[in-house]
Write a structure and sequence with these properties.
By secondary structure, the protein is an alpha/beta fold. The protein is built from ten helices and 18 strands. Helix content is 26%, strand content 25%.
Length: 310
């Protein structure tokens, strides 16, 4: 049975807190696992979440600030320690290759697994598999940063009433799917397009064209909302988004499920007692911005299913 879900390993920006680990997000997409932005402590969070090195097929790093990449050293060494038997591909901004190399070889260990490096140079397609196309778009941050977008190919949904009208049943249903027609009846006459699912991962950035391109039509958008709206000046200055900005981008893009994450340490965990009850306030500001789809304010070790196909 296919599983498509987001496993949240950490939600803190810049520094971890008592309630939040550094960033880390695993997307389970059927039989594959894509690890995004493994910050410090990711290996331990994987253990707590029941995620093994064998579950990983790709690692996607948006940029080389520490809260998004310091966990690479431990994760890569664990991949080698566990002798993962399949290929693992790493995507990251090519301008940060020296940082990737330093993290990959931060200490001595026995290298048993070949990790394929596929650095990102510009907007475009990074990989195409039968299950998805992986794309990248440039974001706006003080260091070069890219967001990632996964698009499933469109398929076809068989329509029982039309099949019955043409007398197609049993093994002939599979035959018309494979061959495209049956006894003069084209596949299009008994089916409709089933739109492929779309997922996007947007971290440290100001509002820019890349944000909108990545979010467009997504079933799930995982996006940073480092600041609340009253701190928009800080967001712009440091290259980040507020809850309202992220929600408006999701609203305009027709996102079905919005996942807010990457929270500044100035805000407490949901249920906290500092100047704002941050979980509720992030949600309130996102709703005030007009986003009316499914909304999750992420916390560590949360599992979020990708919405079912339309």
């Amino acid at each position: 049975m296919s599983v498509r879900e987001l496993v949240v390993l950490g939600t803190a920006s810049q520094v971890p807190t008592r309630h939040r680990n550094h960033n880390g997000y695993l997307l389970r997409w059927d039989g594959e696992g894509i690890l995004f932005d493994p910050g410090e402590g990711t290996q331990r969070q994987m253990l707590r979440a029941g995620v093994a090195a064998h579950d990983l097929n790709r690692i996607c790093v948006t940029h080389f600030h520490g809260d998004h990449s310091l966990g690479l050293a431990g994760v890569i060494q664990r991949i080698n320690l566990d002798q993962v038997p399949h290929e693992i591909t790493a995507h990251y901004p090519r301008s940060g290759r020296r940082f990737f190399d330093r993290l990959r070889y931060a200490t001595a260990y026995r290298e048993t697994v070949g990790i394929t490096e596929a650095p990102v140079d510009a907007d475009g397609v990074l990989a195409t598999t039968p299950a998805y196309t992986l794309e990248a778009r440039r974001l706006s941050h003080p260091v070069e940063s890219f967001g990632y977008r996964l698009v499933e190919p469109d398929g076809r949904r068989m329509l029982p009433e039309r099949l019955a009208a043409h007398g197609i049943k049993g093994p002939d249903v599979g035959r018309i799917q494979r061959e495209g027609s049956l006894d003069g009846v084209p596949l299009e006459a008994v089916s409709e397009v089933r739109r492929g699912q779309r997922f996007a991962f947007v971290m440290d950035t100001r509002l820019c064209e890349g944000v909108h391109a990545l979010a467009e039509g997504c079933d799930m958008l995982v996006i940073e909302s480092t600041f609340l709206d009253e701190d928009e000046r800080l967001a712009v200055e440091h290259g980040h988004l507020t809850a309202g900005q992220a929600a408006r981008a999701a609203r305009d893009a027709g996102v079905r499920h919005l996942v807010l994450t990457h929270f500044s340490q100035r805000y407490t965990a949901p249920g906290g007692t500092s100047r704002t009850e941050s979980g509720g306030e992030f949600e309130r500001q996102a709703r005030a911005a007009g986003f009316d789809g499914e909304l999750t304010v992420a916390h560590d070790l949360l599992r979020v299913p990708v919405p079912k196909r339309r």
